[in-house]
Design brief:
Number of strands: 23
Largest sheet: 8 strands, mixed
Number of helices: 2
Strand content: over 45%
Structural class: mainly beta
Distance between the termini: 12 Å
Length: about 325
């Protein structure tokens, strides 16, 4: 079996009942195991397993089970068409559970054939370090504006406990831990986190790491989740543009929605692939519809083409969205 190829129904029927036959389902996932390491009590501990439908048939997630009440799984989408993606989101309850916790999430698929995929979660929840609130939440931030948020970090135990530094994996995030009080067995910090004005548009999902003076190397590094979204002045949806599966010679049409905070003009749009034709509006408004028409050639292939849209909005003069389409021969697929 090869990634990106469509399974013939006969082949799937022959292998779906066997354990090895479920490899087709596992191949859709980017990974199947994640270790949070050590997290503070009350901290947000969430991880996403991404799956992509690499087949022609629709894939449907029937249900997801968890072997441990400490972890709640959800799916961002239940039905996936060709090339569509979804996340299995694993949320660990770090308030009600402490110590080492391991969970197996079982994803049950019922289309195109029954299958199960097991995802493994590992985490150690410290009882002596508490974060309030459990996540640095920026919410929605306008491009170029920047933002700053503060969370508190409390420790109960050694009187000489310290946060020695804060590591950031993102150059657009900077953080400082400021000690606010220290008594016998109790230490408190304010963690100031700043999102720089130059942060690119898109989602912010990062983990800062508090590096402490704990002797145990496993518990000396404590991650703190940071979330938010930097919103552009103009954005285009859907992204990517999924045109689906078409047969040779067929024509398919979809629409892109280009939306801004204030009225603007679309000054141009282009795609290097001549099989894509774009129809543009003329007037200035805050929401535009761009019609994208694809005419399939005579060669079966998988196409990933960038569409570039130009506007007169000061902070979003050029936007790019990728168009995905798969061209197949007429009639049923055979091997």
């Amino acid at each position: 079996m090869k990634r990106g190829w469509v399974f013939a129904w006969g082949i799937l029927l022959a292998v779906a009942a066997t354990a090895s036959g479920q490899q087709w389902a596992r191949e859709m996932f980017d990974h199947t195991s994640y270790d949070f390491g050590t997290v503070a009590r009350g901290a947000k501990a969430q991880h996403r397993f991404t799956l992509e439908n690499i087949y022609e048939e629709d894939v449907h997630i029937a249900s997801i089970d968890s072997s441990c009440g400490c972890t709640t799984p959800t799916a961002t989408k239940k039905t996936l068409k060709t090339w569509e993606k979804a996340d299995i989101v694993a949320e660990v309850d770090t308030r009600s559970f402490l110590g080492q916790k391991d969970a197996t999430l079982t994803v049950h698929l019922d289309k195109p054939f029954p299958a199960e995929v097991r995802l493994n979660i590992h985490v150690y929840i410290r009882s002596d370090v508490v974060v309030q609130p459990g996540v640095v939440q920026f919410g929605s931030v306008s491009a170029g504006a920047g933002a700053e948020e503060t969370v508190s970090v409390s420790y109960a135990g050694r009187s000489n406990w310290r946060i020695e530094q804060v590591e950031s994996p993102n150059p657009h995030l900077e953080a400082e831990a400021v000690e606010t009080s220290r008594t016998a067995g109790q230490v408190n910090y304010d963690l100031h986190v700043r999102l720089k004005p130059g942060a690119p548009t898109g989602y912010v999902r990062e983990h800062l790491v508090l590096v402490t003076n704990d002797a145990n190397t496993r518990s000396s590094r404590v991650p703190i989740a940071v979330e938010g979204v930097v919103s552009p002045s103009v954005e285009v949806r859907p992204s990517p543009l999924l045109l689906g599966v078409v047969q040779t010679g067929q024509i398919v049409t979809k629409r892109l929605v280009v939306k801004g905070a204030a009225p603007f003009h679309i000054t141009g749009a282009e795609c290097a692939d001549p099989r894509f034709a774009l129809t543009l509006p003329n007037d200035a408004k805050s929401v535009h519809l761009v019609q994208v028409t694809f005419t399939a050639g005579e060669t079966p292939e998988k196409i990933d083409a960038p569409i570039r849209i130009k506007t007169d909005a000061a902070s979003a003069q050029a936007l790019t969205v990728r168009a995905h389409v798969r061209v197949i021969p007429p009639g049923p697929v055979s091997f």
